[in-house]
Design brief:
40% of the residues lie in helices and 15% in strands. It is of the alpha/beta class.
Length: 375
């Protein structure tokens, strides 16, 4: 017979648990930060930086793992892993402010990472494809009147925003020229403006010509699935309008991306790629950024599942996250109704993790689920 009862606490409200054990109420907020742990990988520190960080971590009650040759100085740089509670990480940052070798800048990054707030409530972004060949509803809303009707239906079903695309970027698809995209998009934008529809609208395009024509009309968001790689003038165009952008990761162009996608470390490679794209966007005057790891864009089924499992790691980039799993091929065979159920199953986990945006075909089922969580 066990003399003690032990229970590991996971996914709890820490402040409520502290209250239940009778903890001092005036100290609860500060104490709860000691119960949140971070495991942080920092790239490319020189031996001096790594050694100082390691000693600072140890002196703060945390820990820091480095390359074995950091102490000898036989290597030029080392990636490190820093681990500790949020309280300990903040203490480390406060001490690094007074250290040389640009560690003051690292201190700010650590504090930003600790203070990054999760979404208060996941936003549902409805998909409106005005295309001939999208993978789940290609051709259904190519007719302008049907597209208008579906737009209103998505809004009435509870969409927080709408993503409109006139070019399918499904695997093995070919590009659609800018003039054709605009022929499809502009009548819908005329309708949106005439009806005074005010929810956020993003335009799914890789073309700076399309982006320019759209942004002339107002505060639309550009969703570039290539992550500013397909069209060399895209970043400049968005920067000129000070517009918002969704930067997605994609391994190559749609016609080739699913031939044989391969990664050594899928999460690390996507993370570093998005980090570089964010820096590039900043250099072009773009500040309003949402990031998307690009489920299905140059990814195997295993890659997609790993991204979903570890999606919270991308929060350290410091920008809102959008994820689109809706009806994608890695969900297996089945009609749209079946795939919508699988989509909701995965998105329920993303909602629980505080992911900022989910991009879906079936808005209604997601809104009903989120209403259940509230009531």
């Amino acid at each position: 017979m066990k003399e003690f009862v032990l229970r590991e606490l996971k996914n709890i409200n820490k402040e409520e648990e502290l209250t239940r054990i009778g903890f001092d109420s005036s100290y609860i907020s500060q104490a709860s930060s000691k119960l949140d742990y971070k495991l942080i990988k920092i790239y490319g520190l020189n031996p001096a930086q790594a050694n100082i960080l390691k000693q600072t971590a140890i002196s703060s009650g945390a820990d820091c793992m480095t390359h074995r040759e950091v102490i000898t100085g036989k290597i030029d740089n080392s990636n490190i892993i820093l681990t500790g509670s949020i309280s300990e990480i903040k203490k480390i940052a406060q001490k690094l402010v007074f250290q040389p070798f640009s560690l003051k800048e690292l201190a700010k990054e650590l504090l930003d990472l600790c203070d990054y707030a999760a979404a208060k409530e996941t936003k549902i972004i409805g998909i409106l494809n005005i295309t001939e060949n999208s993978f789940s509803d290609g051709g259904m809303f190519l007719d302008t009147e049907k597209a208008k009707q579906h737009l209103i239906e998505l809004i009435n079903d509870g969409a927080d925003g709408i993503d409109i695309g006139a070019e399918s970027t499904k695997p093995f698809s070919n590009p659609v020229n800018a003039s054709t995209q605009l022929e499809r998009i502009l009548p819908i934008l005329n309708f949106i403006e005439k009806e005074n529809i005010t929810i956020p609208i993003s335009i799914d395009t890789r073309s700076h010509i399309v982006a320019d024509e759209v942004l002339k009309r107002g505060e639309y968001i550009i969703n570039d699935v290539s992550g500013l790689e397909y069209d060399a003038k895209m970043a400049e165009t968005i920067g000129q309008y000070k517009a918002k952008i969704i930067i997605q990761h994609s391994l190559g162009t749609p016609d080739k991306m699913q031939v044989a996608p391969k990664y050594k470390d899928v999460i690390e490679e996507i993370y570093l790629s998005l980090s570089n794209k964010i820096k590039y966007a900043h250099s072009m005057g773009i500040e309003g950024i949402i990031i998307d790891p690009g489920i299905g864009f140059g990814k195997t089924k295993e890659n997609n599942l790993e991204i979903i499992k570890r999606i919270e790691e991308f929060k350290a980039l410091g920008y809102p996250i959008m994820v689109g799993v809706s009806r994608k091929s890695f969900l297996g065979e089945g009609d749209n109704r079946t795939k919508d159920i699988y989509t909701l199953a995965i998105n329920s986990g993303l909602i629980d993790k505080g992911i900022d945006y989910i991009r879906v075909h079936n808005v209604k089922i997601h809104r009903e689920y989120m209403n259940i969580l509230k009531n």
